[in-house]
Task: inverse folding
């Protein structure tokens, strides 16, 4: 009698444990699958591309001959655009984030801005390129230049900087603000001398993440008409004439690493694919480096900040 | 001496002292500047919508809306131009669908596993590594799809062409796994633990708790994760531009080459297109279509989220 009651129960328990075990395996497998794909991608690039990496590869312009071609114009272009992007996105993003956390009244305008930032983050990046082509290139006459590209990517990563700024400002306890007001500081002084320094770690993380996003972004730059074959460098920022600094480079045409890689990838010859792989390695290393630094900073600040 | 300084202090604390007035003015100006920075994001959206609409409108002077929506060929750059958006929309949906078939199960199972099965220490290591998948430049994924996944698939499907939607879709799927899993996991972890404990107390297994308690109560948060994944897949450009062949093709066969809306925009932008030509307008029409598709999925997502929230 006892057995008759227990048997189906035991079987039921055994079955459910079995299902649970199978799901554990499924979870492990899906994570493993994702990680193995990552590994395959990195290894595939490395095996093909690493032998091609040499000083010449970094110091040569692109060429019709795959063995002579290099990424000089591409990495210089990427660097210039990263600089312009940061100069555009960091002040704007941090200011917007601080306004939304510290000043914004609870009204429809604030709600509109917040909703808009969420939506902006979901808009396909290529539509930013179309917007830049229509407004920056043709309406404002900035041309297909480094400035246009920097502004485009700056606006593209703006939501990332705003959101991370808000998160790290929000994490500062109110007692800090109250202490600052109590000794007579104004709102701006409180922000300038307390809020900004204490949230700088979080903001920096956001900035680095957004740069790592911008450096790999290809589609919007192709849309604004970036060249795919550039055998010259932007004008030097230092000149021999007074005032010794030139901003002419902002107006120059450009190419960037991902576009150079795309260009080589779309050619039929396998020799160019090797160049593409080598460029991919450079891109991947830069992205991983930036992300690693961001994770490290986040980790350090989390350890240091004990309110 | 001491008196005069205290007198000065009293004067200074008076609300109408010039220094105080200046300081108030400065505070107001700073607030205004910060407000303008925050409002600039709205202008970006207005700029995007505005330019897409204004540059698209002249297009419909050449092409009727009916042709645009029903013509089955998209050949704006040919002598005999056809402007039917269907092949591009079809390509976009096909690659997104394949991506979702990969990303939703993988992302959801990974999220459930990370949130409910794994210890905190291991999760802190696995999550950033998984998120690296989203940080890799898309052009690198394009390389991977064209020169790794396609040759691999050709071993299984021998008559698979060098360019096909299948490998592009699969790779996009892998790419958006972190978008799906990260937000889903956050949603699952924010389910209060007393719900889990109640379920365990009733004798449910971990698997039953995950599928009957945690996922139903986290579902409204998980829909945001899915919608984000769908938005990414719809707007993904480089992978399809590299691996899917950039040929507008009205087919649902994933082994065929095809073009998505985004791939078409890239293809046109690579050439030299005069400002104001029909070809130039056609990329704005394509962009507007993409934006409308993305927004409709976001609206559906919002509606679903509301619906499942009310049920709780």
Result:
């Amino acid at each position: 009698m006892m057995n008759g009651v227990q048997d189906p129960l035991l079987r039921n328990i055994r079955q459910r444990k079995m299902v649970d075990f199978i799901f554990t395996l499924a979870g492990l497998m899906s994570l493993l699958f994702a990680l193995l794909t990552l590994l395959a991608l990195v290894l595939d690039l490395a095996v093909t591309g690493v032998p091609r990496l040499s000083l010449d590869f970094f110091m040569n312009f692109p060429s019709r001959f795959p063995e002579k071609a290099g990424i000089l114009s591409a990495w210089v272009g990427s660097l210039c655009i990263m600089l312009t992007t940061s100069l555009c996105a960091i002040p704007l993003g941090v200011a917007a984030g601080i306004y939304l956390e510290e000043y914004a009244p609870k009204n429809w305008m604030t709600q509109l801005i917040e909703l808009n930032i969420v939506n902006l983050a979901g808009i396909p990046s290529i539509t930013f390129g179309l917007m830049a082509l229509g407004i920056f290139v043709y309406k404002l006459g900035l041309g297909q230049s480094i400035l246009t590209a920097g502004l485009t990517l700056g606006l593209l990563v703006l939501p990332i900087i705003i959101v991370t700024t808000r998160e790290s400002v929000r994490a500062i306890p109110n007692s800090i603000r109250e202490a600052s007001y109590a000794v007579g500081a104004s709102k701006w002084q409180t922000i300038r001398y307390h809020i900004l320094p204490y949230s700088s770690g979080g903001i920096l993380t956001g900035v680095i993440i957004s740069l790592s996003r911008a450096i790999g972004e290809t589609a919007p730059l192709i849309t604004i008409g970036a060249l795919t074959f550039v055998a010259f460098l932007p004008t030097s920022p230092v000149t021999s004439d007074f005032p010794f600094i030139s901003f002419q480079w902002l107006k120059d045409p450009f190419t960037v690493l991902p576009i150079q890689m795309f260009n080589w990838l779309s050619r039929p010859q396998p020799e160019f694919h090797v160049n593409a792989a080598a460029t991919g390695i450079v891109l991947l290393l830069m992205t991983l480096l930036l992300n690693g630094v961001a994770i490290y900073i986040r980790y350090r600040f989390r350890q240091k900040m004990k309110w | 001496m001491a008196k005069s300084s205290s007198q000065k202090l009293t004067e200074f604390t008076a609300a109408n002292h010039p220094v105080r007035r200046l300081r108030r003015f400065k505070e107001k100006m700073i607030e205004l500047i910060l407000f303008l920075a925050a409002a600039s994001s709205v202008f970006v959206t207005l700029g995007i919508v505005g330019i897409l609409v204004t540059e698209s409108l002249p297009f419909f002077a050449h092409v009727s809306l009916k042709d645009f929506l029903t013509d089955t060929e998209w050949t704006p750059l040919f002598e005999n131009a056809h402007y039917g958006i269907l092949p591009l929309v079809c390509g976009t949906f096909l690659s997104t669908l394949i991506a979702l078939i990969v990303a939703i199960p993988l992302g959801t199972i990974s999220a459930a596993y990370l949130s409910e099965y794994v210890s905190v220490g291991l999760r802190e290591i696995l999550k950033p590594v998984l998120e690296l998948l989203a940080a890799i430049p898309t052009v690198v994924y394009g390389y991977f799809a064209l020169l790794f996944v396609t040759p691999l698939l050709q071993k299984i499907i021998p008559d698979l062409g060098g360019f096909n939607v299948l490998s592009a879709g699969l790779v996009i799927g892998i790419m958006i796994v972190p978008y799906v899993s990260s937000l889903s996991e956050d949603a699952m972890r924010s389910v209060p633990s007393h719900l889990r404990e109640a379920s365990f107390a009733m004798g449910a297994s971990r698997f039953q708790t995950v599928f009957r308690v945690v996922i139903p109560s986290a579902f409204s948060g998980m829909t945001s994760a899915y919608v984000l994944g769908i938005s990414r897949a719809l707007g993904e450009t480089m992978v399809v531009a590299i691996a899917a062949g950039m040929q507008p093709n009205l087919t649902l066969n994933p082994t065929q080459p095809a073009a998505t809306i985004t791939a078409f925009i890239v293809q046109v932008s690579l050439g030299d297109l005069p400002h104001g030509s029909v070809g130039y307008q056609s990329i704005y029409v394509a962009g507007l279509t993409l934006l409308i598709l993305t927004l409709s999925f976001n609206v559906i997502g919002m509606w679903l989220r509301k619906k499942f929230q009310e049920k709780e």
